Structure formats: structure tokens, C-alpha cells
Amino acid sequence: MPKSFAPVLLALLIISNALAKFTTPGCWGRNCLVQNDAGALCLQAKNDEAPSACSDEILLRLLDVHVHSNIGLSIAYYDERGHFLGPTIWPVPAPLPFAVYVCMTGRRSDDNGRYRTLCRTALHDDDVYNASAYDRACAVERPQTFVSDGCYTVPHKSLFDSNALTVLGGIVTVVTVVCWFLKPLKLLKGGWRYFATSRYGRRMLGVSRREELIPRAFDISLYPPGTVTRRQGNAGVDVRDLVTIAQPATALYRP
Q: Which residues contact 131 (CB under 8 A, 6 or more apart)?
């Protein structure tokens, strides 16, 4: 290699390292960027107050993209459409050809078990101390669903967390409403079954049993004998007057 190219290559190497320089720890407000044992840059958030409501549609979209990212980097760069641009060592172009955003997620140091995710505009490399970078920022109190850089451990969701209870309550409500509507149907079904299986119901439906259609023989034992026409103890009442069906004449009895 000619000696004249050595200074040029050295200069290009220095410039490339200077461009990819979002690895410097620092603090702004109550948030800090610190390095973990593996050398990765991680966010440590600290704020006693909940984040204010955010109305920036782009930042809200980026927050959702970063929280549900399958890449698992706690700090990452995105464009305004949510396309992943690179990790912390990604060089921010200067000048910016388009809007660049950086999203960070980390454990809160002032509240154990809580996490914070924030997204803001990225102006240049190592813009932690640039106050203008935080003019457009949004944050939510929740971690990512997957983390691969070791900055923190994703908390395991309990079976009885608020979301699960909400879903369970909705299921119970739906089942209760369905059972309430099915109860009249069961009663109607039971009444129809009683009508269809009764003798008169079968006659009306034309499905009478064969034995029900056979005429029954006349049973004379259902009527009192001819010699007993007065009820004992009430001589003025004829037994035949108490019978609603007219007593027919037979060989053994004549009215």
C-alpha cells in the first residue's frame, strides 16, 4: 500500500468512529443513560410524576412500535413511519435528510418494578445534552415485550393482572347475558315438549298412539245399580242428578 493512502484511510476511520457515537453516558432532567456490565447503553428513568398526555400521532405510533419490537433493543432509531434504522451506534446523518427519532426503554430507579418508554426527535450524535432534542417527546409507563440487549428483564405477566381481569370480566358478562336469553327458550322448549307428549296434544297434532284410537268397551261398573238411586243421608238428591253424563239404558237398568 502506498504511504500516501495511509493518512486518508486513517482519517476515514476516525470520521466513521466519530459519526457512530451514541454510546456516551449522560443525564438530562431526571433520566440518565448508563452502561451495563456488557457495555450496552441503557436508560435509567426517574420521575415522581406520571408522563403528561401525548397528542403527537407520530410519537404515539413510535412508542407502540418500540414497545412491541421483535428486535429487542432498549434504545433504537426509527423514521417517522416506524421503520427501524439502527441501534445506539447507528450514525445520525448530518444534515438530516429526513426526520429521525430515538426511542428508549428502561427501569425506573425511583420505583422498583416500574418501567418507562420514551420517544423523541434525534438531532445528531450524542445529543443527550441538547435541550432542543426534548422539545418533542412522549413517554409511557410500560416496558417492552421483548428485550435482547440485557438492559433489563421483561416482567412476567401475572394471570390476575388488570388486563386478564378485564378480559375475564367481559367473558363472564357475555356468558351471563347468553344464559339470561336462553332461559325463556328452555321454558318454551319444556312447555312444547309437555304439550307434544300429552294425549290431547298428540290428537291435535295427528300423532295419536294406536291404542288411543281403539274404542274402549262400555264399563257398566262406572254407574250405580238400578236399585240404588238415592244417596244415603240425603234422600232428596238423586244419584243420577250428580252425574254429568246421561246414564244410558241397558238390559239391567232402565231409567
A: 28
Higher pLDDT, 151 or 155: 151
Q: Which residues contact 118 (CB under 8 A, 6 or more apart)?
A: 31, 43, 45, 51, 63, 103, 104, 105, 137, 138, 139, 140
- Picking from 84, 80, 59, the residue whose alpha carbon sits closest to that of residue 70 is 84
Whole-number Å distance between alpha carbons of 109 and 124: 27
Q: How far apart are CA 37 and CA 32, in angstroms?
A: 16
How many other C-beta atoms are found inside a 10 Å radius of the C-beta of residue 206?
A: 6
Q: Are 158 and 53 in contact (CB under 8 A)?
A: no
Q: Tell me: the pLDDT tens digits for 64-84?
A: 999 999 999 999 999 999 999
DSSP H or E segment with residue 103: strand 100-108
Find the helix or strand (DSSP H, E) in which 24 lies: none
Q: What DSSP letter does each residue of 116-139 carry, written as one string?
A: EEEEEE--STT-TT-GGGGSSEEE
Higher pLDDT, residue 30 or 239: 30
φ/ψ of residue 34, rounded to 5? -130, 160
Q: How far is CA 117 from CA 44, 48, 102, in A?
A: 10, 15, 11
The percentage of residues in the chain with a pLDDT greater than 90, rounded to a whole number, is 23
Which residues, 6 or more positions from 35, have their beta carbon under 8 angstroms from its beta carbon?
23, 25, 41, 42
Tell me the residue length of the chain.
255
Question: Closest by alpha carbon to 128, among 23, 26, 21, 20?
Answer: 26
Residue whose entry in the numeric block shows the C-alpha cell 426527535: 121
